[in-house]
Write a structure and sequence with these properties.
199 residues; mainly beta; 7-stranded mixed β-sheet; 4-stranded antiparallel β-sheet; 10% helix
Length: 199
């Protein structure tokens, strides 16, 4: 099983007067040195730095930060309602265990609203998914999001495709949530948020 662990440091410029670009744009990671030392039992740890001007969107008096890319697992891995052939997942995806820990700092003038509930999805032989969202006890400005997705099977028979698709849809419903920042007072200047991701 491939196990991945990633560390990402991001600086996000947020404007209080302009709408944010598309969430998680495909070009948000610029060229730069990466560090991906190997590990035991198929584990890998990746480090990289990134910058995005479109990681959050602006709403009246609020900033909304999505916790997942806009592309869903079900639309990518199970777009059809029915299949006549088995599904073969690529080797980099299954079997695998992917963990991400995302730490987001509130910009000046913003406070965190109540976090949405996390949860866990059990997919049986297919794998599992888990989401935890907590406030950082060491820093009132920060929230910490822990996301884990496990794929155990690389071949999905036609007879199991419906259950596989249901597992992916449940995982999407769990992971595609957002955390919200409430603007405490009107701010005319640009704010900056630092998002540090450890996976």
């Amino acid at each position: 099983m491939l196990k991945t662990s990633t560390v990402v440091a991001c600086v996000l410029a947020l404007s209080g007067s302009a709408a944010m670009a598309q969430n998680w744009p495909s070009n948000w990671i610029p060229p730069g040195p990466n560090d991906a030392p190997g590990g035991a039992n198929g584990a890998a740890r990746v480090r990289y730095h990134a910058h995005s001007d479109g990681l959050a969107r602006h709403e009246p008096n609020e900033l909304v930060v999505p916790l997942s890319p806009s592309m869903t697992l079900s639309s990518n891995l199970a777009p059809l309602t029915k299949r006549t052939l088995p599904v073969s997942l690529p080797s980099y995806l299954a079997p695998s265990r992917q963990r991400r820990t995302i730490r987001i700092l509130a910009p000046p003038g913003f406070t965190w609203e109540d976090a949405p509930p996390g949860g866990k999805v059990s997919g049986g032989d297919f794998g599992s998914a888990q989401l935890e969202i907590t406030k950082d006890p060491r820093d009132a400005r920060a929230v910490v999001i822990r996301r884990t997705v496990v794929f155990d099977k690389s071949e999905i028979p036609v007879a199991q495709y419906g259950a596989w698709r249901a597992f992916l849809q449940q995982t999407d419903a769990l992971m595609h949530k957002s955390v919200r920042l409430l603007q405490a007072s009107p701010a005319g200047s640009k704010a900056q948020t630092e998002a540090k991701v450890t996976k």
